[in-house]
Specification:
heterodimer, A: 313 residues, mainly alpha, MetI-like fold, 2 domains, 76% helix, B: 294 residues
């Protein structure tokens, strides 16, 4: 099997997964909505006029048999038509896409902070894991790992906004207001990445090629930076795909805490207000985004990892 | 869950051989069990039978700082005992996490073993479902489902369990596949021992440390997820004193009463660290035994 066909197969598998996922999620949402009660009643509110309810029912086609409604719904989904927001009378997809950049900005900043913090720390910890000072740092990392990301966010607010009054914590008001939300989002990932990188480094340091390099007279830092770390980082970067999904979960709650204008906060607000077109559009966009990141890392891996290159020829 | 090099390195498991903290397994296990013991005793005493100060407010005693006579962690905006409420919240927070972790691990173990033991379409179907669900942010699904099904102990516990089982299934599948390739299992197969007997006598015992580690980690994850959902207003009923609800309420009083946030936050961190200690302790011990056996 050649490399390009391997990539094509991997992509095909991913696209199938995306299709299954989108189908499953839209179906789940459709039936849950009907399980949770009459959607027309939900939209109209509890004390609505029966005539209004009938009107809504006719307008959204809710008077049709369930199977007809479902097929129509699937059809609309295929053309990316999620309908209008029930609150803002605007295209639901438009509302979500408008906020895409804020969410992506936060995610990218968080990834950057994660890399800057966890690569040096992980490398240092993994280089000689049994030494005394590293054990102490490991114990600290262990406790930090027990602090859920959003609680870290609350603690950061308490310290930098309430006590020290250095920073603001509401919305996007320029670069200084980016610091706390992106630190919070990064704190969802940093302890895990430190652990993975230090484990990978310490594993790599026991490999044969390190022994060979050492025998040929390579110095300690050289062993770490030229031989062990690149391997460890390769493994850690592979996690970005899966971690991105986790990051999206984290951005949901981070955006709520900091009133950040991204689609995570929009999703939570829409869920609470039962604004289903927006919920569906947001879930759809998140699924596609996660898919793109996963597919991207897969391709990247096939291109940069020499071991995979050899294996697939 | 696929066997290709790329995807197997993508798995994010608490892999047993992963982390060498230098900390001793027994020490971690002991500390973790002691901490969980404290939580269990408190849950069974204060949690099941919260003091009157936790439920009934006293407006003359609002916002008393920690250490006030009779109020270890101070009082909240209604003059209720914060310590009492953290205690009463254990039933919600720890209870939901326990049920959710049990559901996730039960389904995950069964389907992981089915996938490992039945080549052909059951394996393909399970793996596709697992790969698909794992790639999706579970909080997004949970938020939506809770909004539709309503708040409460059981909706939350079941939703979290159902959103999490694929991770357990992936771990069990990968471990079971590697156990199945071990010499003693292959020898048993060649000797004509039936698959069910092999599963019961060889595979399940070998899986035990993995399952126990995973249970501890999943329990911790579910605790965090429950409190996060309650924090977003999509978890337990608003009046319930769950830790996430307390955190959510505390945000309005960060300036005048930071202890309203610090007490439940401390409780969550204490529980998560305890469970992580147990999980890592078991993993470290299993690793040590594995190396000694070699």
């Amino acid at each position: 099997m050649t490399r390009s066909s391997a990539i094509r197969d991997a992509m095909l598998k991913r696209v199938t997964e995306l299709a299954v996922l989108l189908f499953a999620i839209t179906t789940l949402l459709f039936f849950l909505l009907r399980l949770g009660g009459d959607p027309a009643m939900i939209m109209a509110g509890d004390e609505a006029d029966p005539e209004v309810v009938a009107l809504i029912r006719a307008r959204y086609g809710l008077d049709q048999p369930l199977i007809v409604q479902y097929l129509r719904y699937l059809g609309a989904m295929l053309t990316l038509d999620f309908g209008e927001s029930l609150r803002a009378s605007r295209s639901a997809l438009g509302l979500v896409l408008e906020r895409l950049w804020s969410t992506l900005l936060l995610a990218l900043l968080a990834l950057l902070i994660t890399a800057v913090l966890s690569i040096p720390l992980g490398a240092w910890l993994g280089y000689r894991p049994d030494s005394g000072d590293r054990k102490a740092v490991n114990a600290v990392v262990f406790v930090l790992q027990g602090i859920p990301g959003y609680i870290a966010g609350l603690l950061l607010i308490q310290l930098f906004v309430v006590e020290l009054r250095w920073l603001t914590s509401i919305g996007n008001q320029g670069i200084s207001s980016w610091i706390l939300p992106s630190l919070t989002l990064a704190s969802f990932l940093v302890p895990k990445m430190v652990r993975v990188i230090s484990a990978n480094v310490s594993e790599a340091m026991r490999e044969d090629y390190i022994r060979t390099a050492r025998a040929t007279g390579a110095s300690g830092p050289e062993l770490l930076l030229r031989h062990a770390l690149p391997n460890a980082l390769l493994g850690a970067t592979a996690l970005i795909g899966t971690q991105f999904a986790f990051l999206m979960s984290g951005s949901l709650i981070t955006e709520v805490i900091f009133a950040w204008p991204g689609f995570g906060a929009l999703l939570v607000a829409s869920v609470t207000r039962l604004d289903f077109p927006v919920v569906q559009a947001a879930v759809f966009v998140i699924a596609v985004l996660v898919f793109l990141v996963n597919a991207g890392t897969d391709i990247l891996f096939n291109l940069i990892d020499p071991r995979l290159r050899r294996q697939t020829t | 869950m696929s066997d290709t090099t790329t995807s197997s390195r993508l798995s994010l498991l608490p892999r047993l051989r992963l982390w060498r903290s230098g900390l001793r397994g027994d020490a971690m296990l002991f500390a973790g069990l002691a901490m969980v013991g404290v939580l269990a005793v408190l849950a069974l005493t204060v949690g099941l039978n919260p003091p009157r100060e936790a439920t009934t407010g006293n407006l003359r005693m609002r916002f008393r700082p920690p250490g006030t006579e009779g109020y270890l962690f101070g009082t909240d905006q209604l003059g209720r005992s914060v310590a009492g409420r953290v205690g009463a919240g254990m039933i919600w927070s720890l209870g939901i996490a326990l049920v959710a972790a049990t559901i996730a691990l039960s389904i995950g173990t069964v389907l992981g073993l089915v996938a490992a033991w039945t080549p052909g379409w059951p394996r393909r179907v399970i793996r596709t479902v697992v790969d698909t669900v794992i790639a999706f942010p579970s909080l997004v699904i949970a938020v939506t489902v809770i909004a539709l099904l309503g708040r409460g102990f059981w909706p939350l516990a079941i939703t979290l369990g159902l959103a999490t089982w694929p991770i357990a299934a992936r771990v069990v599948y990968a471990e079971a596949m590697s156990i199945a390739r071990r010499d003693y299992v292959v020898a048993a197969q060649l000797a004509g021992v039936g698959p069910v007997t092999i599963l019961a006598t060889h595979v399940l015992p070998a899986l035990r440390p993995t399952l126990m580690t995973m249970f501890a980690f999943t329990f911790a994850d579910m605790l965090v997820a429950e409190s996060a959902l309650s924090f977003l207003g999509l978890g337990v009923p608003i009046t319930a004193p769950s830790w996430g609800n307390m955190l959510s309420e505390s945000r309005e009083y960060l300036v005048e009463a930071p202890w309203l946030m610090l007490a439940p936050a401390g409780a969550i961190v204490f529980a998560v660290v305890a469970l992580n200690l147990i999980g890592d302790g078991i993993a470290a011990n299993a690793r040590k035994r594995g190396r000694a056996a070699m």
